[in-house]
Amino acid sequence: MDTETRLSRIRALAQAEGKVMATALAHDLDVAVQTIRRDLRQLCAAGLLERIHGGAVLPSGVSNIGYGDRRALNRDSKIRIARRAAQLIPDNASLFLNIGTTTEAVAHALHAHRNLMVVTNNLNVANILASNPSCEVVVAGGSLRRSDGGLVGDLAALAIDRFKVDFAVIGASAIDLSGDLLDFDPEEVRVSQQVIKAARATILVADSTKFTRKAPVKIASLAQVDHFVTDRVPSEALINRCADWGTKVALV
Amino acid sequence: MDTETRLSRIRALAQAEGKVMATALAHDLDVAVQTIRRDLRQLCAAGLLERIHGGAVLPSGVSNIGYGDRRALNRDSKIRIARRAAQLIPDNASLFLNIGTTTEAVAHALHAHRNLMVVTNNLNVANILASNPSCEVVVAGGSLRRSDGGLVGDLAALAIDRFKVDFAVIGASAIDLSGDLLDFDPEEVRVSQQVIKAARATILVADSTKFTRKAPVKIASLAQVDHFVTDRVPSEALINRCADWGTKVALV
DNA sequence: TCGCTTTTTATCTTAAACGAACATATGGAC
DNA sequence: GTCCATATGTTCGTTTAAGATAAAAAGCGA
User: Fold this and answer.
1) What is the pLDDT of residues B5-31, one digit of tens each?
2) What is the spatial distance, in angstroms and rounded to an integer, between the CA atom of A34 and the C1' atom of D8?
3) What Å value separates CA A134 and C1' C24?
4) Phi and psi (nearest 5°) for A72?
5) Does residue A92 approach strand D to less than 7 Å at its CB?
6) Min CA distance, A141 vs chain B (Å)?
7) Model confidence over A11-34: pLDDT tens digits?
């Protein structure tokens, strides 16, 4: 069984059961425990699972924000990126925020903005922005994905279809050096694509660790992005390509 | 049972009961008391519980459980009503929970139910049920109303239109003695009406203070309700009328 | 207050799980 | 063919979870 298949099997099982055990997985998928551990580590790096002794569980996500500070992965970079992205957004704007911890950081960074209209399919973002009284929050419907507070499914797509916003602020699970934005979930990808289409400008927020990650589904290309806010771009070639595409890169 | 599961079970129990005892937990979760103590210490360090001799309680002061004071109003009645309503709902059911503090209490009371499918337009309900891993949560979209975490507007109506559930669990702002259910917000009323239509059975949860309130918009009549769970019905005549209508009244 | 019981903390122990490093395929690119 | 990257398995020292035990602390009734 190849890695890709194994990862999605593990993800499916985790979604179904809430948790997975390393040794059990090793037995079921007929690979060494060490291999499973590597898989779990990868899935955790992408924020899809959280390690526990003996296996992994779905991230606490929605259920307990501010429980541990597990969310603190690359926290400083994310905050800096979020602040810069927030600067790109003027008061009185309408925008979309999708799923991802970086977009959640953007939601935090928008606390001082006035009179925004924010559409989101991220329950955490909704909770965060609820504390900004001068901001209308519209929640796109959908099935709650506990791992990250995302609302997915065709309900979300249906809802987003009714909006045309000034900015789409999107995250991505991975970015490859050719400039493709990647994600794990085809459903979420569909939403992201729809959002990019429905927005007058697209802002991509992603820290540089995303360049070392992998994910199976393509969201879009950096060519379709207007502003790319990140902490480091590992390849000079990619920066040049962004210039050609007209994608403004903001390094923080 | 792994640590993570144990911690969330303890949290859920603490939310439901208000306090937990170390020895009882050790017995229930089938681990040594020592282990439970370690768990409690961890939860307290995170500020989710407070130690007392023999166990732990919900932190006093800060309303972890409640946002406004309204929630504290008639808290005991609401909890009793919610528990009774939860008994009416079997495992594996699909249901709708609308806006209101009493329906939020029902969401809490459903913490031990298995395999539910819950549709809600109440952000608080979504947050509460997110901690029950064996429960699919579908959020109906809409504009966030900060006063009560409700999602309102035609987006919500659009979403609900796509479901047919076993139970509608609804609250009401007021009930008058002729048996009419009333609310303040015409938009929310539209959602509630739609929900009643889309459900095979309707459960109304409302404490007796609702009989002394007034509200301008009519949701429905008690005649359309299958189960009415409350703590007191002030009028003998209304009880008789419910009997005529086939509305089962459960007093707690 | 004293003394008894229960609970808590501290420390130790065992078995399981973990990560790092190394070894071994596997499959292109040249 | 060689070289290189990647994926997987293996070994080994380290870490962690959780039960057990004994001493300290807290609660409680007389």
Assistant:
1) 899 889 888 877 788 999 999 999 999
2) 9
3) 61
4) -75, 5
5) no
6) 4
7) 989 888 888 999 999 999 999 999
